[in-house]
């Protein structure tokens, strides 16, 4: 009931158009103004190109023809491609610059489950290979590379990846290449995704990689809790990303900030920076807000606030590993409520695998200036687990006004810490001694 209610509430919003320089609309703070919505003067319908929404006709040619028309006619101000109510089965397809993909109420763009003709593309250079399998990877269902000024929006229509066939291939270990994301933008800028339901992604749901100026707002993202690796939104080596006012319930992290994998991410050297996550609600067996574990290009200046998590694995998870390299710094999570969660806060230097045996074991990641404040949890089994790396102690950790109540029983939830240094103000239950060191009290100076 909660999930349905949250979906309805979120779907009733409309996109307005801000970032670290925040704007307010009434009492609502938003970062969405970094990408203003574009009004398209030219409008076409998928039905003009033979699209049939009967759930059986394959519409691949119709989508490709419509987008070819947008790309080559280049109408001033771009073109809106309208998808009316109906179920439009299609293979994967590429978007183009200066276009809006608009899904009417009741419109469903549904991925075919015939994987034999799914396009293969090169691995991302910051990963060096597919994330799951060596070699290339399957192209995302809806894809964009080198684009600008692209909008995916509508009246809460649905993009359905029909991912169960891919999940079963993963479970049965018959995958030849890495599964496709539902929507991926590469080397693109000026992207807006709003007022759309994303369902049953084969792999990660929304993946902006090497992008800038991205707004994802008023979306609903749904996948079963046992669906493997169905992350909600993964900003990856991207900057100026605004994620707001959304409901996410998937089988993996709701939002995970990434920046490349071991030696490949170090060589590519593109960090994720200035990421805002605000007013996100959801549940997951894994983490609500995550950084990592692929962080080799570095992650900095992340703000997550007003987050509500239910029936989840971890509230906040900062995760990296030996061989990653990179610096994770200036991460702030505040106004976080969680209920029925296994671990409230987890900071780990031993998480995630390696792409091959060529990673550098001396490439140690550094984590510093992590602020966790105004956090409340009920029915939390373990308050915190914070383990850094010997010879690369995680520093500048501040916990302020954090209360994590356990399940009914005689013992409160516990903390477990190693190779970290920081400070704590008004934290219950009493944190580990590594978070009460005098020399680190400056970490919380602004919160006392």
Automatic annotation (TrEMBL):
Residues 1-26 form the signal peptide. The keyword Heme does not apply. It comes from the Eukaryota. Transmembrane segments: none annotated. GO terms for biological process: carbohydrate metabolic process. Coiled coil: none annotated. It holds the Pfam family Glyco_hydro_28. GO terms for molecular function: polygalacturonase activity. Belongs to the glycosyl hydrolase 28 family. PANTHER family: PECTIN LYASE-LIKE SUPERFAMILY PROTEIN, PECTIN LYASE-RELATED. This is Pectin lyase-like superfamily protein. It comes from Gossypium armourianum.
